[in-house]
Specification:
Layout: H1 3-9, E1 11-22, E2 28-30, E3 37-42, E4 47-53, H2 63-71, E5 73-83, E6 86-94, E7 103-111, E8 114-118, E9 132-140
Antiparallel strand pairs: 1-2, 1-3, 1-9, 3-4, 4-5, 5-6, 6-7, 7-8, 8-9
Length: 142
């Protein structure tokens, strides 16, 4: 895509919603609860950083609480490029080690100050034996 397309995603984005759509039923579910928090930054230097946090997280008092806190978080950074209607991210640091050194592709749609990033159809450990698509909506910085 043209440099102007890359420029259109640059800057700070605040999370509006983090949902998954089940491939088999079309059902939409909140991935991190009804009021998740988070930000996404696309830098002019080609680096991105994002963090998402689930609704209602509390300090961990024991191992099960720590596991729940981990499941209620997503954070990663890496180099990105914009290609046609996709943002392609080469992840180098992530909250989950399985994401490090992976290529994450997100389809994007930009309408005014709203950016929607959508994953390819994939599996997710929270929904075993089902395929889904992640749909994360953002609004330009605040």
């Amino acid at each position: 895509m043209s440099p102007s397309s890359t420029n259109s995603v640059l800057g700070l984005w605040k999370l509006l919603s983090a949902r998954v759509q089940m491939e088999d039923t079309g059902e939409m579910l909140d991935l991190f609860g009804p009021d998740p928090q988070g930000f996404f930054v696309f830098g002019s230097d080609g680096r991105m950083m994002t963090i998402l946090s689930a609704s209602g997280r509390t300090p961990a008092a024991n191992e099960p609480d720590m596991a729940a806190a981990f499941r209620g978080l997503m954070a990663y950074t890496g180099r990105f490029i914009v290609e046609q209607n996709q943002v392609v991210i080469e992840v180098d640091v992530a909250w989950h080690p399985a994401w490090e050194n992976t290529r994450q592709v997100r389809f994007f749609e930009l309408k005014g100050d709203r950016l929607t990033l959508t994953t390819e159809i994939q599996g997710h450990p929270s929904y075993p034996n089902r395929k889904l698509r992640g749909i994360i909506a953002w609004i330009r910085g605040t």
